[in-house]
Specification:
Layout lengths: L1 H20 L6 H8 L6 E8 L8 H13 L3 E5 L5 H6 L4 E2 L13 E6 L2 E8 L6 H15 L4 E6 L11 H7 L5 E4 L10 E4 L5 E6 L7 E8 L5 E9 L1
Parallel strand pairs: 1-2, 2-3, 5-6, 6-7, 7-9
Antiparallel strand pairs: 1-10, 4-5, 8-9, 10-11
């Protein structure tokens, strides 16, 4: 366990440095070099949007549809609120809300199973009291009780705040959240960021905004035990 934590800590620090210097480039080679594992048994592709314009972002929508139709392991997430016309054009796997009520996170969480891996999705609602502690409790439940390989939080908190809960605080306070997808309209990081949680394990923080890019793509490779072995960021405008 100690060596695993050390790897995670070193991998996160190296990855963060690379992301800052060269945003949105692959960091799979960095994480693989610490494990000595270059091949993967499973791969999940997370696509996420926040404020997609169904009328103006035709190329991105076409790209998302192509990935979804040709990759059975693609998971499409929406951290921002879904517009009626958008819900008809894209089939989200999980979202904060949906007019057809097919992708909405109900009962505080949703579990998606792809390639034999379970991904638990939760929502950090900025108007909810004790939102940080509630999300932490729920993420631990999904990881320990529901045996989710990945726990992803769709967050409306904002990347960094002075006096209110934010994505950075949530990441650093958690033990079982693997990824935070931001949906705040103004408060977000322009680049992917990797924070260390309370166990010194990596938490990916990413957000899509039409000010920078309209769709984020995160590819994660797993070994046969469900351990993360590779990570790659892409963005699409």
């Amino acid at each position: 366990m100690k060596s695993r934590r050390n790897f995670l800590k070193q991998g996160a620090l190296a990855s963060t440095a690379l992301v800052v210097l060269k945003p949105f480039e692959s960091i799979a080679s960095v994480t693989s070099s610490f494990t000595g594992v270059n091949s993967s048994q499973h791969k999940l592709v997370f696509l996420h949007t926040a404020h997609l314009d169904s009328y103006g972002d035709h190329n991105v929508i076409r790209y998302i549809k192509n990935i979804k139709s040709n990759n059975k392991n693609a998971i499409l997430l929406k951290a921002g609120h879904v517009k009626r016309e958008e819900s008809y054009s894209l089939n989200y796997d999980a979202s904060v809300n949906d007019v057809n009520n097919t992708s909405t996170i109900k009962g505080y969480y949703k579990i998606i199973k792809k390639d034999g891996l379970k991904t638990g999705i939760v929502y950090a609602n900025p108007v909810e009291s004790n939102v940080i502690s509630n999300v932490i409790i729920l993420s631990t439940y999904l990881k320990k009780e529901k045996k989710c390989t990945m726990v992803v939080c769709l967050s409306g908190l904002g990347y960094q705040n002075k006096n209110t809960p934010d994505d950075l605080t949530l990441a650093k306070s958690s033990a079982d959240i693997d990824m935070i997808i931001g949906g705040h309209r103004e408060n977000f990081s322009n680049h992917p960021f990797i924070a260390l949680n309370s166990n010194h394990a990596e938490v990916i923080i990413h957000a899509a905004s039409r000010d920078t890019f309209t769709c984020g793509e995160i590819e994660i490779d797993f070994d046969s035990r469900g351990e993360k072995r590779g990570l790659n960021f892409k963005t699409h405008s």
